[in-house]
Design brief:
Helix 2 runs parallel beside helix 3. Helices cover 17% and strands 37% of the residues. The protein has a single domain, classed as 3-Layer(bba) Sandwich (Glucose Oxidase, domain 1), CATH 3.50.30.40. The N and C termini lie close together (7 Å). The strands form three sheets. Strands 3, 4, 5, 6, 7, 8, 9, 10, 13 and 14 form a ten-stranded mixed β-sheet that branches. A two-stranded antiparallel ribbon has the order 1-2. It is built from four helices and 14 strands. The chain is of the alpha/beta class and 163 residues long.
Length: 163
């Protein structure tokens, strides 16, 4: 599936307003895919990536994991082993409102990754967090079951599939 986020913005802009929501340009690009899209699955966690491993252990075909990590820059929520697991289980990509680590290795994995930055320290593991709830960051609310589109120009969210 090929798309460009600027074209989607243009095509789905209506007289009454936009049907797509544009995420603030705050993310760095990682992973082997420069563009990715899929149905949104959400996690709300803070410096604990236990639920990330659980999610990536499930079938992610056609899905994007959106992680609200509270914007923490104190540890990483995704590393190379989790990215490998995500790829193995068919995930299209992940958006991390927080940090990742092992970025050099992740760049060689065929998965789309957006994160605020990198951090070498791993997270704690207490199994604390929420799944499939609305999360808000970057000026956009991400609802489970909506659709995310990411490419070199940015991230868009839509209530329905666009392509």
């Amino acid at each position: 599936m090929s798309f460009k986020t600027p074209d989607l913005c243009d095509e789905f802009e209506t007289e009454l307003g936009k049907t797509v929501r544009v995420v603030a340009p705050m993310f760095q690009r990682y992973g082997g895919r420069s563009s990715f899209s899929g149905e949104i699955i959400t996690l709300k966690i803070f410096e604990d990536n236990s639920l990330v491993r659980e999610a990536f252990g499930e079938n992610g075909q056609g899905k994007v994991l959106v992680i609200d990590g509270g914007g923490s820059l104190r540890c990483a929520l995704v590393g190379d082993q989790l990215a490998i697991l995500a790829k193995k289980n068919g995930w299209e990509g992940v958006v991390v409102y927080g940090c990742i680590r092992d970025s050099g290795d992740i760049n060689g994995i065929d998965i789309g990754v957006r994160a605020l930055n990198t951090h070498p320290q791993k997270s704690i593991k207490k199994g604390v967090g929420d799944r499939n709830i609305a999360v808000t960051f970057g000026g956009v609310t991400f609802n489970p079951g909506e659709w995310l589109y990411a490419d070199e120009d940015g991230l868009l969210v839509s209530a329905k599939p666009l392509v």
